[in-house]
């Protein structure tokens, strides 16, 4: 990934974030040198009047049409697989990742976006009813047919990602080269999913990080700022993150933030971007000041001593 290592999340664009504000955020992101805009065909069905997704992609389509020069400056990523088939029976009833469903969903996304090809298409939510090999072939065929440049997986366990990659490579198809999961500085208690996390394999674990580092896969992180809980007193850190290890992590995060003159959230973003491997945070903010803070954060270089302090906090915590 080149340019600013930050993706602008468009999840709520056109739903809870009105068109004028959405356009302003998109314009500012591009003006600042941002490239990647991330959405999904199911965004945001849970908040839409219809109970189905597509609003975010449609808004991006209107923005791209109103900004004819923007398409050459931005990269669009979208996801398929999690859109409800029956809005009253999700997640049991969703489009899934069969070859037919993948192609139909991808074509629908392109129509809503008003473009001929996306830059990265993600398998949004694993589908155990379909052999992962079939899904890998379906995504590889979309690359061959020019509907997407690259393919990725979101919320999949490492073994299925590697199985999909091996199958694609053996058949001369484009393999998965990007992973999208939830990641932040604080870690939830083992076996506990944070609020809003409804994917069994949604959290980025060490096996996925090791796979990405070994195979040189991109990693994207959603909810890196815990929906604003690091810095907004009105948003307490979720109970799933309440454990002794995180209490020490928060102490160190506060120390580093004070030394840098930055906010907690800015340190978290800088920590993700400058890590090994580097992780691209997805910003889902709805306010211009949130975008400006994030843009400043991803340009912030953590001195090695401070990064080491953040990385080694678990090893130095009292027993």
In terms of DSSP E residues, the strand content is 5-15%
In CATH, the topology is named TIM Barrel
Describe the sheet with the most strands: 8 strands, parallel, barrel
CATH hierarchy: architecture: Alpha-Beta Barrel
Enumerate the strands of the largest sheet in spatial order, edge to edge or round the barrel.
1-2-3-4-5-6-7-8
Chain-averaged pLDDT: 95
Number of helical elements: 11
Helix and strand element order: EHEHEHEHEHEHEHHEHHH
**In CATH's first tier, which class applies?**
Alpha Beta
Q: Which structural class matches the secondary elements?
A: alpha/beta
Radius of gyration: 19 Å
- Low-pLDDT residue spans: none
Number of domains: 1
Q: Please, what is the CATH homologous superfamily?
A: NADP-dependent oxidoreductase domain
Got a strand count? 8
User: Terminal Cα separation, in Å?
Assistant: 40 Å
Helix percentage: 25-40%
Shape annotation: globular
List the helices and strands and how they pair.
Layout: E1 7-9, H1 19-31, E2 36-38, H2 55-66, E3 75-80, H3 99-113, E4 120-123, H4 132-144, E5 151-154, H5 158-170, E6 176-182, H6 206-215, E7 218-222, H7 244-260, H8 264-273, E8 280-283, H9 288-298, H10 304-311, H11 313-316
Parallel strand pairs: 1-2, 1-8, 2-3, 3-4, 4-5, 5-6, 6-7, 7-8
Describe the structure in your own words:
This is Aryl-alcohol dehydrogenase-like predicted oxidoreductase. InterPro entries: AKR_Detox_Biosynth (IPR050523), NAD(P)_OxRdtase_dom_sf (IPR036812), NADP_OxRdtase_dom (IPR023210). One of its GO terms (cellular component) is cytosol. Residues 5-314 form the NADP-dependent oxidoreductase domain. It comes from Diaminobutyricimonas aerilata. The protein is an alpha/beta fold. The protein has a single domain, classed as NADP-dependent oxidoreductase domain (TIM Barrel), CATH 3.20.20.100. Helix content is 39%, strand content 11%. The protein has eleven helices and eight strands. It has helices spanning 19-31, 55-66, 99-113, 132-144, 158-170, 206-215, 244-260, 264-273, 288-298, 304-311, 313-316, and strands at 7-9, 36-38, 75-80, 120-123, 151-154, 176-182, 218-222, 280-283. An eight-stranded parallel barrel has the order 1-2-3-4-5-6-7-8, surrounded by five helices. Helix 2 (55-66) links the parallel strand 2 and strand 3. The mean pLDDT is 95.
């Amino acid at each position: 990934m080149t340019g600013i290592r930050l993706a602008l999340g468009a999840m709520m664009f056109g739903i809870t974030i009105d068109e004028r504000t959405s356009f302003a955020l998109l314009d500012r992101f591009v003006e600042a040198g941002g490239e990647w805009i991330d959405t999904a065909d199911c965004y945001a069905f849970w908040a839409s009047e219809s109970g189905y997704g597509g609003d975010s992609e449609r808004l991006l389509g209107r923005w791209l049409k109103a900004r004819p020069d923007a398409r050459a400056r931005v990269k669009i990523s979208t996801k398929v697989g999690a859109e409800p088939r029956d809005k009253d029976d999700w997640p049991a009833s969703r489009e899934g990742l069969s070859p037919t469903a993948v192609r139909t969903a991808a074509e629908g996304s392109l129509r809503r976006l008003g473009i001929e090809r996306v830059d990265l298409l993600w398998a949004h939510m694993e589908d155990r009813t379909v052999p992962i090999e079939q899904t890998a072939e379906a995504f590889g065929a979309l690359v061959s047919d020019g509907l997407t440049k690259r393919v990725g997986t979101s919320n999949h366990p490492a073994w299925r990602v590697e199985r999909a990659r091996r199958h694609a490579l053996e058949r001369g198809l484009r393999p998965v080269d990007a992973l999208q999961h939830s990641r932040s500085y604080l870690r939830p208690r083992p076996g506990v999913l944070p609020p809003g996390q409804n994917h069994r394999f949604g959290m980025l674990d060490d096996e996925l990080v090791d796979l990405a580092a070994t195979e040189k896969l991109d990693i994207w992180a959603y909810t890196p700022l815990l929906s604003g809980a690091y810095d907004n007193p009105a948003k307490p850190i979720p109970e799933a993150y309440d454990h002794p290890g995180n209490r020490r992590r928060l102490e160190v995060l506060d120390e580093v933030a004070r030394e840098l003159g930055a906010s907690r959230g800015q340190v978290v973003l800088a920590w993700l971007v400058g890590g090994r491997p580097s992780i691209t945070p997805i910003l889902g903010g709805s306010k211009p000041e949130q975008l400006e803070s994030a843009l400043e954060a991803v340009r912030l270089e953590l001195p090695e001593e401070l990064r080491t302090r953040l990385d080694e906090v678990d090893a130095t915590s009292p027993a």
